[in-house]
Design brief:
This protein is an alpha+beta fold and about 675 residues long. The protein is about 40% helix and about 15% strand. Helix 11 (about 365-380) packs across helix 12, helix 15 runs antiparallel to helix 16 (about 550-570) and helix 15 runs parallel beside helix 17. It is an enzyme of class 1 (oxidoreductase).
């Protein structure tokens, strides 16, 4: 074990990033034309980095498995993006955003990274407005804000429930400009299979053309992993079905340490599981918790009647409803952080108060908001003594303007009108705070290999506040990596093009070809999905919203056995040298089967509860998370040693000089 060097700048926190930028090495414009950069993933982190680096003059190659860069999963983000602009005049500031993020992450994130994130957040909004992103605006034309969980201010900029889509289109437009100039070569329907190292440095990748099955070699002076998170290790999650860990995991197997894999976010507002037929779950934006009130019936008899269809939720009087978040956390109410809200919903459902047939759902109710907004609208329109019907009509119009597409989506999936009856929601796997370990420059433990956005571990600690994923992705891509990667590439101005006809490329390609052929020629009896679903059940039941030592130990052995069975009995139809989506899935599930074991190992070693990592043995009498700052205030970074069971732990100790570390309270 070693203590990791995160290369943090010295000096006053508020000046560290500025001083760091002023002191790092630069590459002059003429030399940038001779330097190549590969970027894996074209979501907000990868797309913004590609556009910015190409604009600076670097030669960029982008790779995505989708049929277009604009189909990256960032497009699915709904609720908004945080920035400390204080447009509402409610006391927000760079320090407040920094503080909320560190507190929300349960004091398990790096101070310097989080402050930098808060510092550049305001620039992101200006950049995106300049690109034409249609953020919501107030009546006077100024950009509007709403609040998200874990904060007491309104700092979230949004475009209805389509914020991720609009931001990604802005980054994609910037990318297209560079593609048109020839500065970006876009490789769609390509999957990275391996990182190639030469003399210890990342110098290229092995990729597979998913349309033809052809294996390709691509070289560069640096490689950037921006491939998103690994939530699909649970099979059912809010991620797109194609989202995977392969790029990050292959980087890990080439020497990049993997940090805090057990830190996974369970999102509290998702459409509940409806049966075994589902292949993914649907997120309902956290922004809905601004106006929606979460509750379950107070009395178990009412729960039974609702499940049997004998009672409607709208029939229950206010005194017969348990608004449990408002009851338990009066200061924050329905806007507590995601980990707190998720565990609270699980606790109520485990106690028998779940309101759907499976017993795994709570209500998200907009009746109060419709009434409130309806009365405001009536007053604004000078309607005296409005009828209840008129108030309801006006209130619905306001809600539709704020959340219309989300309500429409819910009704299409569930076949219930959320304007008339409360939504049913339940927590589901969403975002992963863990990822590839990076230093302050976003460089991994492999020189020349960088990681940005959700693919790295850097900014969210043990729990991510809502609307901070888009903020981190764009901060990394637009405003951090373009500076820090130059510091590394300044040593490569005389290197010249990296050849691909070397033994390192030969060996990496052979390794991946042999692996694909082994999977394609494995005459087993069970489908890839069979194994993925079994892995997902183990992960959800034993590494999900709550964990304990006994379950984690059994999860480790069960995943290892499942991995052995997978290689023995998986059936992949088709050939390796053609379009073969089952083969694609097989490679990704093989990586999940290794990651899953490391995930459980990481959760087992961390004998505390913090953020999204909730160990049943470590909780207060009130059921809240109990941290152990004396023994676990560190980043756990794992080094690959051939098998997940052999992974070696390295620590990055966390020090807080600008924030008082204390038990989180949202009461």
């Amino acid at each position: 074990m070693s203590i990791l060097d995160s290369k943090l700048p010295q000096g006053e926190l508020a000046k560290k990033w500025t001083n760091h930028k002023n002191s790092i090495n630069l590459v002059n414009p003429a030399n940038k034309r001779n330097i190549d950069v590969i970027i894996i993933g074209t979501g907000l982190a990868g797309g913004s980095a590609a556009a910015t680096l190409a604009e600076l003059g670097y030669n960029v190659k982008t790779f995505c498995y989708q049929d277009s860069p604009r189909r990256a999963h960032s497009i699915a983000a709904q609720g908004g993006i945080n920035a400390a602009k204080n447009y509402q005049g409610d006391g927000d500031s760079t320090y407040r955003l920094f503080y909320d993020t560190v507190k929300g992450g349960d004091y398990r994130s790096r101070e310097e990274n989080v402050y930098r994130l808060a510092e550049v957040s305001a620039n992101i909004i200006d950049q995106c407005v300049a690109q034409g992103v249609p953020f919501a605006r107030e009546y006077g034309g100024l950009l509007d804000n709403r609040s998200f969980g874990g904060v007491l201010v309104s700092r979230t900029f949004y475009a209805k429930g389509q914020t991720g889509q609009q931001l990604l289109l802005g980054a994609y437009a910037a990318m297209n400009r560079q593609i048109n100039r020839g500065k970006i070569k876009s490789y769609t329907r390509h999957e990275m299979l391996d990182v190639v190292k030469i003399d210890g440095k990342a110098r290229g990748i092995i990729a597979r053309d998913l349309k033809t099955g052809k294996i390709e070699r691509h070289s560069a002076h640096a490689v950037v992993i921006a491939s998103g998170g690994y939530g699909n290790v649970f099979f059912l999650s809010t991620n797109a079905m194609g989202s995977n860990v392969t790029a990050a995991w292959k980087a890990h197997k080439r020497g990049a340490f993997f940090a805090n894999p057990c830190y996974t976010q369970i999102h509290p507002t998702c459409i509940p599981v409806s049966g075994d037929h589902q292949s993914k779950l649907t997120l309902m934006s956290e922004s809905l918790r601004n106006d929606g009130r979460i509750w379950v019936p107070k009395h178990i008899e009412d729960v039974k009647k609702i499940r049997e269809g004998k009672l409607k939720p709208t029939d229950l009087k206010q005194e017969d409803r348990d608004y449990y978040l408002e009851r338990r956390y009066p200061s924050f109410g329905n806007l507590v952080p995601r980990d707190v809200a998720s565990r609270a919903a699980k606790e109520r459902c485990d106690a028998g108060y779940g309101v759907n047939k499976t017993g795994q759902a709570v209500y998200l109710d907009f009746a109060s908001a419709i009434q409130r907004y309806g009365k405001e609208a009536a007053a604004t329109q000078k309607i005296s003594n409005p009828s209840e019907a008129k108030i309801k009509e006006l209130g619905k119009e306001v809600i539709e303007n704020k959340y219309g597409n989300l309500f429409q989506m819910y009704e299409k999936i569930v076949d219930e009108n959320p304007y008339e009856t409360p939504m049913k929601i339940y927590p589901a796997v969403h975002y992963t705070m863990g990822g590839i370990w990076v230093d302050y420059n976003l460089q991994t433990t492999v020189p020349g290999l960088f990681a940005t956005g959700e693919a790295n571990f850097s900014d969210h600690g043990a729990n991510r506040l809502g609307a901070s994923a888009l903020m981190q992705g764009l901060a990394d891509g637009y405003f951090v990596l373009p500076y820090t990667i130059g510091n590394y590439l300044a040593d490569d101005i005389r290197t010249g093009p990296i050849p691909t006809d070397t033994k390192e490329f030969d060996e990496a390609e052979k390794l991946q070809v042999d692996r694909l052929n082994k999977l394609a020629n494995n005459n087993g009896t069970k489908s890839v999905d069979h194994f993925h679903k079994k892995l997902g059940l183990i992960m959800w039941n034993k590494c999900g919203m709550s964990r304990n030592a006994k379950d984690l130990e059994s999860a480790i052995s069960e995943i290892k056995e499942l991995r052995e069975e997978f290689y023995r009995d998986v059936k992949v139809p088709g050939d390796a040298n053609e379009m073969n989506q089952e083969l694609e899935k097989a490679g990704r599930v093989a990586d999940f089967l290794e990651l899953g074991e490391l995930f459980a190992k990481d959760a087992l070693h961390r004998n505390e509860s913090c953020g999204g990592h909730f160990r049943e043995e470590y909780q207060t009498e009130e059921g809240e998370a109990m941290r152990d700052d004396e023994n676990f205030m560190y980043v756990a970074a794992w080094e690959y040693k051939g098998e997940p069971s052999a992974a070696v732990l390295h620590k990055e100790n966390l020090e807080y000089e600008n924030i008082e570390v204390k038990t989180r309270s949202y009461k």
